[in-house]
Design a protein that fits this description.
The structure holds two protein chains of two kinds. By secondary structure, chain A is mainly beta. Chain A contains no helices and twelve strands. The chains are: A mainly beta, B mainly beta.
Amino acid sequence: AQKITQTQPGMFVQEKEAVTLDCTYDTSDQSYGLFWYKQPSSGEMIFLIYQGSYDEQNATEGRYSLNFQKARKSANLVISASQLGDSAMYFCAMREGVGYSSASKIIFGSGTRLSIRP
Amino acid sequence: DTGVSQNPRHKITKRGQNVTFRCDPISEHNRLYWYRQTLGQGPEFLTYFQNEAQLEKSRLLSDRFSAERPKGSFSTLEIQRTEQGDSAMYLCASSLRRVGAPMGTEAFFGQGTRLTVV
């Protein structure tokens, strides 16, 4: 069965430092997609980055990069040069069976609360 | 506004009453998801649709919950005989699944409907 594990309930980081948020997943499927979302205190879920299981290179989007280690089933989010506005909850998520006809939901981890110190 | 729209934003109801929430997905998005989120937790999958077909429903969803997506456009989530444990944020998300498209597309979330059962 699908499962996402985020083992860091909360993290404090100094502004301008890099931070890594951990995510491990469990799936028996060979085709899957991994996502990271940010949820500020205002409540909206903001998509950050996506990694497909067959993508050979790690995904990057601006200051966000995904450290994808398939054999370890981990998909850690790296935020470079953190900013005060990065303070939020961060959720790792996964969808199995990414083909058009596949029927699969997106499941989320329990999240990590990131706090950036000035 | 071309994002996912949810109405109402807030709902306070007495225990035992029925409530209905509406979600308007991004135009042409064929997949629509419903999630429930309680404070400090990740979104919990409830159900999802591809066009008008309900493809999966969480086992956590009791018979008091029902969702529809007539004509594959907007969706409604109804909770009958509400209980205090139903108090949560109900999130709707949509995504586009295209034949031949790169594997996986992100889901875009609405602002949510916050339900309080008193």
